[in-house]
Amino acid sequence: MKLSSYLTVNHEGNHEINIQKSRFIGYIKRVESEAEAQTFIQAIRKKHHDATHNCFAYMIGENDQIQKANDDGEPSGTAGVPILEVIKKQALKNTAVVITRYFGGVKLGAGGLIRAYSRATAEAIKMTGVVKRQLMQIFKVTVDYSLIGKLENDIHRSNYVLAHTEYLENVSFHIYVAIDQTESFKQWIVDLTNDQATIAELDQTYIEQTIKST
């Protein structure tokens, strides 16, 4: 059963901050599997092989069933877990984060490290961007040419999304409808066209809307 909607990061990004002379470079990536997350992590480790630490966390799956955090040499619980907690707090799914640190000579202490890795993660996510993925049912609504104007105008004024229109012997509108609105949509079309439309359910797909990261 697919989720009707969920939050995740916009495909990939990075952001750097400096805290007490240490560089913290946050790398963010949307991932669909643990193998993809590990490939991403290894790529960052290779890129920053000379870094003091490459700490990471990821959360994958519709029910967040895959969760992992790694401190990569930082004191236990001061890096990987704080990264993971930011992912959880923002309710992000299928998200991997690597925070690369170049030590600047000033020790931050456990509390300082937790705050630093949390901040680096949150700022990198904000710079990358967060999207809401909404599961949509694609409908093909076919009508006679005489109904084009009315139907097209009402679709544009509705919450439904008109993907494209086919002009053949009749006119077919391909419309995205939120998965929990399919029954009301079908009744809406019947009422709007006096039951003169042919309604066909096609595939389901996710569409994305950018939202503000906290």
Straight-line N-to-C gap: 28 Å
Task: Kindly state the percentage of residues in helix.
Answer: 25-40%
CATH arch. level architecture of the largest domain: 2-Layer Sandwich
Task: Please count the helical segments.
Answer: 5
Name of the CATH homologous superfamily of the largest domain: Impact, N-terminal domain
Structural class estimated from helices and strands: alpha+beta
What proportion strand?
A: 35-45%
What Rg do the Cα atoms give?
23 Å
Element order: H for helix, E for strand? EEEHEEHEHEHEEHE
User: Are there runs of 5+ residues with pLDDT below 50, and where?
Assistant: none
Arithmetic mean pLDDT: 95
Write up what this structure looks like.
- β4 (53-60) and β5 (66-70) form a beta hairpin.
- With 214 residues, this protein is α+β, with helices and mostly antiparallel strands.
- Strands 1, 7, 8, 9 and 10 form a five-stranded antiparallel beta sheet that branches. A five-stranded antiparallel beta sheet has the order 2-3-6-4-5, sandwiched between helices.
- The protein starts with a strand and ends with a strand.
- The relative contact order is 0.18.
- It contains five helices and ten strands, in the order βββαββαβαβαββαβ.
- It is elongated.
- It has two domains: 5-128, Impact, N-terminal domain (Ribosomal Protein S5, domain 2), CATH 3.30.230; 134-211, Alpha-Beta Plaits, CATH 3.30.70.240.
- The mean pLDDT is 95.
- The protein has helices at 34-47, 80-89, 109-128, 148-157, 182-192; strands at 5-9, 12-19, 22-30, 53-60, 66-70, 95-102, 130-143, 161-167, 171-178, 198-211.
- Helix content is 30%, strand content 40%.
